[in-house]
Amino acid sequence: MLFTGADSRSVRFALAAFIGIAALTGCISKPPCGSGGDLALDGTPLYTPSLQSRAITAENTPGAKGQGGQAGGGRKGLPCLWNLKKDQVYTFAQVEGAGCIRHIWITAENKGPLKLRNLILRFYWEDQATPSVEVPLSDFFGVCHGRTAPGESAFLSRPEGRGFNCYFPMPFAHKARLTVCNETGEDAGMFFYQVDYTTGDKVSAETPRFHAQFRRVANTTMGTDYVILAGVKGKGRYLGVNYGLVDRFAGKGVWWGEGEVKIYLDGDTKFPTICGTGSEDYAGSGWGLGEFAGRQMGAPLVKDQYVSFYRFHVMDPVYFSQDLKVAMQQLGNDGKGEPADPNGPLKDFIDKGWYKKDRPGGNFERVDDVCTTAYWYQTLPTQPFPKFPDKALRSLGL
User: Fold this and answer.
1) What is the rounded CA–CA span in Å between residue 385 and residue 219?
2) How far apart are CA 67 and CA 297, in angstroms?
3) 3-state DSSP percent of the chain in helix, strand and coil, to 5
4) Going residue by residue through the chain (398 aa), what tens digit of pLDDT does each one get?
5) How many Å apart are CA 155 and CA 210, to the nearest integer?
6) Looking at the domain covering 208-378, what would its CATH class be?
7) Options 3.40.190.10, 3.30.460.40, 2.30.36.70, 2.60.120.1390; CATH of 51-62+80-205
8) Which residues are 151's β-sheet partners?
9) Stated pTM of the model
10) 51-62+80-205 against 208-378: fold identical
């Protein structure tokens, strides 16, 4: 098939994205001569005898060869976990030996934001007790605030906003365990899933493993940058972030997105190596932010007070060799040279200590409600994550 124009660019981008990440993680094995040569399709060999394809579903939980689709006499007898019970921790994939997860598809009975925010994904690599992935379902797949929306990026897609797909390569040397925990407070109903992976991948101790971490701060600290990610130690690559804001100032004629994104690499202390120019600029846009979709950046949700955007570093990789920290300033702009009238439209924010302007110009310090999911690769061990936000904080205002 010949691709031209936008289709060709999309295919080339997908190929470059997958090759870059897969090469970093060790999920590409060069096929021997006579088995497909160096040709590749989206970063994977056309054929190689060193890799075997497997899939895990509710009907074939071990992912065993020749054992799929047997339930109910082979007539779709077990398409899902019928009921994810209250407080249940369900291991929906466990693989022994070396391999690489290539694709995860999940869908669940959607009963609104409180459900999607309180089904928690936790993934474990090798024999670690600490999860390397700890994120609510919808946040992991690219939309904040327990919402969903149609969209596609370099690694995530949500066809019609109902199915959740990810294509992050996730290598492991000895063991992978993927779990979902129902922290909604009630039975969650049907949970559908499929995990597609390969076995036989060449994965060593120096192969960076996939990580993702969720944070939420309901009230940021005035004048202190919100921390997207910190405490990372090892070698690897910062891949990007899914960033969410509940904009309390919505409708007041002020702008939220003047904060610069700061990336501290390998011993940076007071000042970062990489520093952007503004929040919507980091999302690839400018002069405000509306809904749009792109391979490396996009904003699937900009409605009322809810803002959700993502940014991936694929063609502009961010590598680290010792440690990593990522933060964003909480700065807005009110369009005025002087501080706001203490008895004007921003009175409540001023009284609560959520607005402060101590220098000329339109920019002002804000206190915001922010949530993020950071994605990155690093060598093990995984440092213990900060305390996971409890249900009350995860669900606040949704």
Assistant:
1) 20
2) 39
3) 15, 35, 50
4) 333 344 444 444 444 555 556 655 656 544 433 334 456 777 788 999 999 999 999 999 999 999 999 888 889 899 999 999 999 999 999 999 999 999 999 999 877 999 999 999 999 999 999 999 999 999 999 999 999 999 999 999 999 999 999 999 999 999 999 999 999 999 999 999 999 999 999 999 999 999 999 999 999 999 999 999 999 999 999 999 999 999 999 999 999 999 999 999 999 999 999 999 999 999 999 999 999 999 999 999 999 999 999 999 999 999 999 999 999 999 999 999 999 999 999 999 999 999 999 999 999 999 999 999 999 999 999 999 999 999 999 999 99
5) 13
6) mainly beta
7) 2.60.120.1390
8) 158
9) 0.92
10) yes
> For residues 245 and 218, what is the distance between their CA atoms, to the nearest angstrom?
10
Q: Can you tell me which residue has the tokens 């009284």?
A: 351
Query: Are β-strands 119-125 and 331-333 bridged in parallel, bridged antiparallel, or unpaired?
Result: unpaired
Where exactly are the structural domains of the chain?
A: 1-47, 51-62+80-205, 208-378
**CB contact burial 179-196 (16+ within 10 A = b; e otherwise):** bbbbbbeeebbebbbbbb
Phi and psi at 18, nearest 5°, equal -65, -40
Determine the distance from the C-alpha atom of residue 168 to the mean position of all C-alpha atoms in its chain, rounded to a whole number.
10
In Å, how far are 83, 143, 215, 238, 351 from 212, measured between CA atoms?
Answer: 26, 14, 10, 10, 37
For 31, which DSSP code?
A: P
Nearest to 113 by CA among 87, 86, 157, 147: 147
Strands (DSSP E) contained in 63-132 are 89-96, 99-108, 119-125
Which SS3 state, helix, strand or coil, does residue 290 take? Answer: coil
